[in-house]
UniProtKB/TrEMBL annotation:
It is found in: Mitochondrion inner membrane. Accessory subunit that is involved in the functional assembly of the mitochondrial respiratory chain complex I. Complex I has an NADH dehydrogenase activity with ubiquinone as an immediate electron acceptor and mediates the transfer of electrons from NADH to the respiratory chain. It comes from Sylvia borin (Garden warbler). It is a peripheral membrane protein. Pfam families: NDUFB10. Belongs to the complex I NDUFB10 subunit family. The keyword Secreted does not apply. The keyword Electron transport applies. GO terms for cellular component: mitochondrial inner membrane; respiratory chain complex I. This is NADH dehydrogenase [ubiquinone] 1 beta subcomplex subunit 10.
Length: 171
């Protein structure tokens, strides 16, 4: 590169750019529109929103999960009471889903314990293994062999047959 620069071709900007003060006798209409918009639209909407937020902060509602009242079991329904049958069936489905989630949670806890303990899992995770065995046995006793299309009636019949077999075995 040459040592001497052509200062005329590449002019250096001035060190201080002067601020232009526009003073005209005609006011800027944008300022009027912004002020009018602020007073007509923005201020009332902001006021109403802040008022609603203050009211909502006073009455906080904490929603954890939906609670259903317990309905009578299928064995407690009167003959021909189809609404009771339907409610008992819905209750049985909810109970089955809850029991499935319980088994899944216990299984996840056991897996986390096995991952955490490594080679010592058989000694340190014995409680979790025992709990999983109990939970899966209870689930299998209640819902096992019902299949995908199992319902409250077949589950009740399975329970009745199991009780009859236990009575025969006790005699």
């Amino acid at each position: 590169m040459p040592e001497d620069h052509d200062w005329e071709a590449y002019k250096v900007p001035p060190t201080r750019t002067p601020v232009s003060e526009r003073t005209t006798s005609v006011p800027n209409p944008v300022n009027y529109f912004q002020t009018a918009f602020n007073y007509v639209f923005d201020a009332p909407i902001t006021f109403v929103r802040e008022w609603i937020e203050r009211l909502q902060n006073k009455n906080k509602f904490y929603y954890y999960h939906q609670k259903f009242r317990r309905v009578p079991d299928l064995s407690e329904c009167l003959e021909g009471d189809y609404l009771c049958y339907y409610e008992a069936e819905a209750q049985w489905r909810r109970d089955r889903m809850v029991d499935q989630e319980i088994v899944e949670i216990v299984r996840e806890r056991l897996a986390a314990c096995k991952q955490r303990e490594g080679p010592n899992q058989f000694q340190n995770c014995a409680k979790e293994m025992e709990l999983l065995a109990q939970v899966t046995k209870a689930y299998q006793d209640r819902y096992g062999d019902l299949g995908y299309h199992g319902n409250a009636r077949t589950c009740l019949m399975k329970q009745k047959h199991r009780m009859m077999e236990e009575r025969k075995a006790a005699q």
